[in-house]
Amino acid sequence: MLKPAILLQAYELMATARAMSDLYDTNRAVCRYVHSTSRGHEAIQLATGMQLQACDWMSPYYRDDSLLLATGFTSYELMLQLLAKKDDPFSGGRSYYCHPSSKAPDKPSIIHQSSATGMQTIPTTGLAQGIQFLEKTFPEKLGRTTEGYLPIALCSFGDGSATEGEVSEALQFATLKQLPIVYLVQDNQWSISASVDEVRAMNVFDYAAGFKGLKRLQCDGSDFEQAYVTMQEAIDYARTERKPVLVHATVPLLGHHTSGVRKEFYRSKDDLAVHALDDPFPKLRHILLANGFTEQELELIETEAISKAAQDFDKAMQAAEPLPGTVTDHVFAPTMVTKESGERTPACGEKVMMVDAALHAVEEIMEKYPEAILYGQDVGARLGGVFREAATLGEKFGAHRVFNTAIQEAYIAGSTAGLSALGLKPIVEVQFADYIYPALNQLVTELSKSCYLTNGKFPVQMVLRVPIGAYGGGGPYHSGSIESTLLSIKGIKVAYPSNAADMKGLMKAAFLDPNPVVMLEHKGLYWSKVPGTEEARTIEPDKDYILPLGQASLVVQANADKIQKGETVCIITYGMGVYWAKAAAEKYPGQVEVMDLRTLYPLDEKAVYELVQKHGKVLVLTEEQQSHSFAESLALRIYNHCYHFLDTRIEVLGALDLPAVPINLALEAEMLPSPAKVAERIAKLLQS
């Protein structure tokens, strides 16, 4: 039997949650932004939140307002987000109700929470991964602690979302590494309008049996006492044993899916009546009456909850709206790396290949920053990456800092959000650009939006290394270019070095940047084995060399006299395009200037426009398939900014618009640009 004080606290919170839900429904015209409430889920959420500590991390999902109330957030704070007000403590009016983020020192911390069901399992498992790493390696860096308690992570989601692939990846990693995390799965038998028998072969409790080493518990989540005892066991297990546990809690769905998808749209009266039998509110009321509380006492609690919710709602309605001018705030956290520093070409330096420059950069980073970790497929000590780009790092820094993951690109990318929140600095790798697509869910939904939707509280500091491009018979699944796909994602940065010095300098800058940075590393330039790419090998910069993101470089210069006579062309390119352009320029001595962008976002627009204005004839060159590409987009931007200076229309040259790069060398060559094809375009521009 639980103490009366616990039961009473739960009833007060449940009455508040109920009053808020009723208030929102009554004021539908005012509550115009889409929202869900915890109606029917209150007992399991309160039982969970009341037992978490301020040192913990939690990830609620979109109907967990009772969980938030139980951890100390007020109804007024939640209503500020409901109405998208300026002082919404979570997102400043940018995100939906019950999408919290918090660093409040007296409550569990909360990283960015998205609406994509099941997606939060990976960033939250990343939190548990980070907790375990710090606990074993740097316990003094665990951050705030609650006396007598070690921190855990809690991830809440619905049973309907347990069918997502990301949930499997998270459970796999948590079980394999035995992480201190509680997965709370609330099962209300519905996935919007799809009933349980339509969408799943088993519930999550049965599904999780396949993850050996994952403790499993079940409870009636509408019974507060049973829910409290179950969550007490789960939280104590994760906190003391430092291992993962999953709780499957059955609950009724008494409210709407959301304010926009109302229950009467798809549920029958019989179904609603069955769910109403498990309403947690009268169940808890009955327990309190059996424990000596009077009807009058409980009615007073309910009346006060309704009154307080109404007062808070009126106050929230009067609160200030966000200033329109703040809409662009917090897209990125500011970086301290704004100037090139260190020695790019030290006097006693030796030429190195790009792959070695990358390896040395990461090695120097890991030597200097103990919070840096490296993981991905095959990067561990046994192989050191399929391109040997991480060779020796596993042996030098140990398996706790350099390790292999399973084939799970979503986890590789998404887990960095949790690690970054704990102050770790992950460098992760996807083996080939062609295989980045499973990671896009996390890159788009979680990482890119985190800084913006948390109002700057949780930028994600991570580097995602991606070998890219065609390299001589690599074939259709190992030769692709993906920069246009990445550049359509706002909230990430994209670097694309073309030589060893730039590789090292950009890698350092990417690591120090507090935002997500994708390093595109051309496989054909790694070893300079492709004819004409010998200059990708450069003198290796010193340990202190840093090249800021967003600075282009002029790698071939034209003759000043020919520029003055209007007899020159500028080529704007990056990656392998730099070497095609250089080779083609040799046929037109003094008539071609080649700019290497080096970073695709942020883009050095000032340098681009100044170059175009100087020449008036422009070729934008890319390895990507040309149609709808970054190169075509850049050409339009150049036209819009520089059309008064143009002598002729802008030329764009990219690969043929084929679905993939063929493996046959002759077919590959036919698809891709080449020095000869670039030279033809130069000739065309010079003749115009």
Automatic annotation (TrEMBL):
Top-level lineage group: Bacteria
Cofactors: thiamine diphosphate
Protein role: E1 component of the 2-oxoglutarate dehydrogenase (OGDH) complex which catalyzes the decarboxylation of 2-oxoglutarate, the first step in the conversion of 2-oxoglutarate to succinyl-CoA and CO(2).
Gene Ontology molecular-function annotations: branched-chain 2-oxo acid dehydrogenase activity
EC number, as in UniProt: 1.2.4.4
Signal peptide: none
Domain Transketolase-like pyrimidine-binding span(s) in chain numbering: 352-528
BP GO annotations: branched-chain amino acid catabolic process; response to nutrient
Protein name (Swiss-Prot/TrEMBL): 3-methyl-2-oxobutanoate dehydrogenase (2-methylpropanoyl-transferring)
UniProt keyword annotations, A-Z: Oxidoreductase, Thiamine pyrophosphate
Top EC class for this record: oxidoreductase
